[in-house]
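FORM 7B - TANDEM STRUCTURE REPORT

SECTION 1: FIRST PROTEIN
SEQUENCE AND TOKENS:
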Amino acid sequence: MLHSAHDVARFKSDHAVVVIGAGQAGLSVAYQLQQRGIRPVVLEKHRIGYAWDQQRWDSFCLVTPNWQCRLPDFPYDGNQPEGFMPKAEIVAYLQRFARHVGGDVREGVAVQRLTPKGSGYRLITSEGEMEAEHVVVATGGYHAPRRHPLAERLPASVLQLDARAYRNPAALPEGPVLVVGSGQSGSQIAEDLHLSGRTVHLSVGSAPRSPRVYRGRDVVDWLDRMGYYAMPISDHADPRSVRAKTNHYLTGRDGGREIDLRHRATEGMRLHGRLATIATDHIGFADDLAGNLDQADAVYCRIRSSIDSWIQQQGIEAPLEPPYSPCWQPSAMADPGIDLSRDPLAAVIWCTGYRSDFSWIDAPVFDGAGLPAHERGVTQSAGLYFLGLPWLHTWGSGRFCGVSDDADYLARLISLRLQRRDASQERLECTAILGS
């Protein structure tokens, strides 16, 4: 049963396990713990599905096929396994999973401080204090939007939004829009605006892109068969930096398709390099658009090539496709930028990433960049764990397809530690009785 904060008059003072966050990660570990006879308290700052519902634009949908939604004992149950769930269906799926999990889920409860206390942890929440022996932090890693340092120089007449605040083209003032950042959010929001007929400027960075369908199958299907999504980070070619890499851009919109920014340029989308300068009447861009597009295409072609090699190794019959050929090239002339006096912008949408904020955790478990140091979610502070972070263990760790395995791993470890504690306490009690 789900409880609101107002339904909870008083917390218990002590719990074996508290889970912070009731998204797909927090609910998954709660379910896996309950399968082992452990009933955790799950604290959710907002409500089930809040981030999917309130921090995504209206046309948002998954970029991975629905069949990859594999929460524990609760796989996708709709009639479009090869489709891509839109926002409302994602929220509904997560809410159904919450009912499937059941348990002690408390919505509207924010954890304001977490500190070690004795052999466990003290939590200060919006509803009072509580203590826990084990704490799983499942709040994700995308907490605060990043904006370009020059954002404050934009004229006050230009509306500024972060990606998670954008909803739809009609909600913006009339006029051209600049989207800064070409990762998944930036490229999809730029398309959303472009397809509505808006004039769109897109500042293109170094984000890679991916095919959608190749040689008869969705690329996610091929990569899943190839074991890419189950590969642990320790086997990755670049484990030190992979967690910080930008996701490949493509879309699940309109039944799923790839995003070719060059093609959008032929239709009138105005592509620029990285944002370089902002003055009262002018926005300038670096001369790196061609290189950034080439780099994205190189990744696109490498993915296709790796699939080709695997198909050949496995002896699979699959239709051939012609090599990729770019349909548009940037002008060799320097980008004049945007003259705000002649072509004023209605809005700028910042799709420049997010930073983590774990400042509310007073435990020595962070690296110099403020990120948790862990081994598959297990920290050096006994009883403190993280779940649902990008590449926590595999590519799927922060997604619907892989969080179940990580949740199962932590639940097994916590269960073992609780069993050892109980056995140790029993031995101490027996010793005390025999000694008396």
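SECTION 2: SECOND PROTEIN
SEQUENCE AND TOKENS:
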Amino acid sequence: MRPQKLEDVVGQQHLVGDGKIINRMVKAKMLSSMILYGPPGTGKTSIASAIAGSTKYAFRKLNAATDSKKDLQVVAEEAKMSGTVILLLDEIHRLDKTKQDFLLPHLESGRIVLIGATTENPYININPAIRSRTQIFEVYPLTPDDIKGAIDRALADRQNGLGDWPISLDDTAATFLSTATNGDLRSALNGLELAARSTEKDSEGHVHLTLPIIEECVQKKAFSHDKDGDAHYDVISAFQKSIRGSDTDAALHYLARLIVAGDLQSIARRLLVIAYEDVGLANPPACARTLAAILSAERLGLPEGRIPLADAVIELCLSPKSNSGITAIDTALADVKAGKAGDVPNHLKDAHYKGAEKLGHGVDYKYPHNYENDWVAQQYLPNKIKNTHYYQPKANGKYEVAFGDQYRRLWHAQHNTAE
């Protein structure tokens, strides 16, 4: 079911949709090397295959960890003979210096169009020499609708799919299959194929796939369903809202549903967001303890990981709440995007170069550590917004009460006004 042209790619329409960047590259026949990064089964290899199919270039696939420099040399020789080869290099974050040095001149010449695939953040894990010669595109987990469409296509496709099989897939089973793999299409299709090939035909010669069969084949249990396939995301939403609303029992219930589904990734991500968005400055130590609980759960795995996760959920539920952090940064972002910025004051500008003083940069800057209590009043915001308040302290919890008092004292001292 691997797509042979861009129109067949499931999801990732921000890259391959009409008028989007990869689509434009292919139509203009101006391909450049790129790195695709994101979770497994979300379409990295499919996009590379579709680019090759749409451009009619030769397509080769290697693994940076297991294939050798000699394998790269074979691809380079083919590129010299045929003109251009699209090379999908899986696990590109594992590329060593010897292979990298061999590849670089071929990327420069354009004979090899490199499409690197990785689940690791390329800004952290990929060598700058490769990174600077590629465009970096993020791919995202597929939606249940994306996966449901791909399942329907696989069931109908007589050439590459299961179209010749007399399969009937129950609606509840289809819904579960489209949500249980957390956006991983490869796992969903593997589960579907295993179910189809391992289920005996009934008396009428049909293969009837039910929810228990699909659960068995993807090795996950259904924790809830609805006809639109939104149950998984509804549970995650209810999980966060229950913690935000300080309902410990409800939060533990939704945590249990996510644990039964084996979705440690969603639990970890959501808990960390909750800690900083909903508790935040009202109880900063809870944020650090939540991260520690997540790391412990990841080290332990499930089911033991349920213990630190439950501790974190209970603490976050019972902690005072404050969203002043997210509100402050979102207000500042809105100003910047609206053009409310202004010039950096001259005394704050970089003065680490010859001639800066002649421009007035860094002149009259007051170094706080030279003053009593390591603080001195001076203007930091641009003139245009010098009296702007972004942080609006809340009075929930001893930490933010203290932060708020200090913020107000400093603001009034900075502006030479009385509290």
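SECTION 3: OBSERVATIONS ON SECOND PROTEIN
Residues 144-218 form a domain with the Helicase, Ruva Protein; domain 3 fold (CATH 1.10.8.60).
The radius of gyration is 28 Å.

SECTION 4: SIGNATURE
Preparer initials: ____
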